[in-house]
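Loading example: each entry is read as two labelled lines plus one structure line.
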Amino acid sequence: MASFLAKRLTLMIVTMLCASFVVFAVSEFAPGSVARRTLGPYATQQQVDLLSERMHANDPLPLRYEHWLGVLVGAIPDPLENPANGLNFTDPRGAQYFGNFGYSTLYKLPVNDVMWTRLGHTAVLAGIAFALIVPLSMLFGILSGLKEGGVLDRSLSVICITFTSIPEFASGVFLVTLFVILWPIFPGTSPLDTNGGGGWSIASQMVLPVAVLVLYDFGYVARMIRVSMIGVMEKPYIRTAILKGLSPRQVILGHALRNAMIAPFTVLLLQLNFLISGVVVTEMVFAYPGFGRMLLDASMFGDIATLEAATLVTVFVAVVTQFLGDLGYMLLNPRIRVR
Amino acid sequence: MSKDSQSSEHPHIPVLVEELKTGAISRRHFLRTATLLGLSAVAAYTLSGVANPFIDEAEAADALPKGGHLRIGMRCMEIKSPHQADFAERSNVIRQVCEFLTFTGNDNITRPYLLERWEVSDDLKTWTLHIRKNVKWHSGRPLTADDVVWNLKRVCDPAVGSSTLGLFTGYLVQEYDTGEKDASGKPKKSSRLWSDKAIEKVDDSTVRLNAFAPQIAVPEHLFHYAMFIIDPAEKGVFGPGSNGTGPFELTEFTVGKGAKYKARKDYWGTGPYLDTFEFIDLGDNPGASISAMASKQVDGLSEADAVQVNAMKRLPHVQPYGVLTSQTGVARMRVDHKILGDKRVRQAMRLAIDRQKIITTSLLGAGIPAEDHHVAPVHPEYAALPKYGRDIVKAKKLLAEAGYPNGFEIDMVTRPDPIWELNTVQALAEQFKDIGVKVNIKPLPSAQYWEVWTKVPFSLTGWGHRPLGIMTLALAYRSNAAWNESGYSNPEFDALLDQADGILDPKKRSIVMAKIEALMQDDGPLVQPFWRTFSTVMDKKVKGFSVHPSQYIFANQYAVTA
């Protein structure tokens, strides 16, 4: 187990390093300098050059990557926070500490002050959505998979495919038209602020974004569970269980479900990745101050420090969910444990 | 008018009064020029015989309810130094705390604001600015000439990165050779005040600008969105708790989320009527703004395009507002391009478009036709020229003469946001097809677009409202101007512009402006389809709101009913 954990940890670090370098390299080829974006369209070239120099934006790519890595592990102080630059970038934690993601050129704040709040907001949204997606998709998947081709299977399949096919922005607009304009029982945006939210409670602000995510995602997972369930229901041990007189409930819960969940388990965990980093459309539609919107704004602005930090977080979530998937496999399937 | 102010009256003002009486100039010309020459707006309105809007405003202000909280939806991007403010949104966040020396109203008339009054010499080179004596910073310290001098000098430092530098270039600021060479071996240039005495303190409440060239638009330049008066002690840094002379104190600011303000009790000027005020960031999705208005999560928007306004018109609590501006989109052509460099090609492009159809399709009717010279009917110096419409036959003939009888193919760069810019490019491309010009549309995200906007051969650029036509002409078309995106260089145009800058008499200036406009229509680097109507929406409970053509928000003028 220890060597398994060590391997996984090493793999995670290598993946993170590769991903972070790829983001740096890709940003290098994106047109437009951070200094220009910071100063705006009407600044003269001379003003842009001056700021580029102060931000070390003209240093070669490997040097900038090395600086970024050094700052992250706390080996060197963040050069942008040097008062001599005149950029007024200050981090209350200091310029040199482990886990220093640097200074956001977009938000004019340390990345640690921006990212974790945004991630927290998205985690709440994702958590509620996930808590609804799992039981709903299991219910739909199992009921569909019990009798392939039956009326129930066909009906549920139509519902699942329909909802999965509607993009988030379309279902968002549809729900807003229905529940904000025609029958105004929910707020149209989710600033997560009761004052700014116009007196709407935080809970009411969560309803529509969560609904959009659940509608978009549950059908896909349900389809995966359905296929797996159909496969399991055709296995000889299920036939044996039925023939030895077990009730349908005992057959499903005692024999079928556990085996049917092995493949969909990974799919379910992959949804966590999507819910953390892929909810940008939902966040845009409902003006939700989350991680996805931050990622979009940072990439449009060329805020490399925020982009890198966000990349590390998403890679971390991906690797951890994979790891949990492997552990889950072991629990669900004893044969994997033996190997 | 007091005896003192009469004694310092500009000698041209009696001439203007006489010309107004004889009908030689319009009331608008009179109001604008007389106020620029230092006559108070109240006196100018009285002399012009126009109903004094100040009396109505004062009466309306007395009737406004006091207290309450107002929320306006607006993008809240990062704010840096107020002197670097580059868009109306960023400037709006700062404007509630820091103020300008002058104020250009919705009527395009510029008045003193932090200034009590100004005087200008006969040659329009010496401007004496008298600072209002009852203005205090939040900290309690009075506003002084030292503060104003520090601010004016700071924006002239290229290292600060203020766009005001561009406006001051040509009369207070000069370019010079640094003696260094850039990577391509060209000499590096920089800018500096033309003289140590260019901006000087006269006494504790008086500042003098000594220009090397005549300039009539100084008061309007002092209302430029980055020309805030900030506390020198804060060294250009702005954020919650920053000192200012304005009506509110910024208590909280989060990029992408919003800005919160608390009203000052000891504000020197009008209002504030609200207790607290807030900008809420609703992101880039236009649908979110509509949703927020529908569920009353905001009381208004800083801007709403025609599509949004149409969607919200049916909401019973929403009041739409609109004002015709000099905001426009310009399809500009690099004059150093092989094909577009031929003025016959540029003329053909201008004749190829149906302006009204473009307004209908890309602005949903919210605009009026423009005339390819970038001077708007709302500008006081606008000279009306004979209109011309779409003429495909003539356009094709011009193309044939230029050596392109079958047209040509060209890339046109634009931005997908705001959507009216992309819509306009699509409409233009369709119409250019009729003269054989195939346009390949190349949309670029805003940040990337602003990297190349002065370099690409053919693009559409959105230009904001400015109170004077000559301001935009000087910024965008004068030879070697910083924002000269088309590379246009015409000594005759430059000379006419210099001439217009220094002419006081509106009648004489109008003659010069007509020459400039005709020159632009003949030789200029642009196809300009329209002038936009700037629109927004507010909840009907918001009182005292009127839409400013520059998209400026002045929360001290607004109130809310319970």
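Chain B is about 30% helix and 20% strand.
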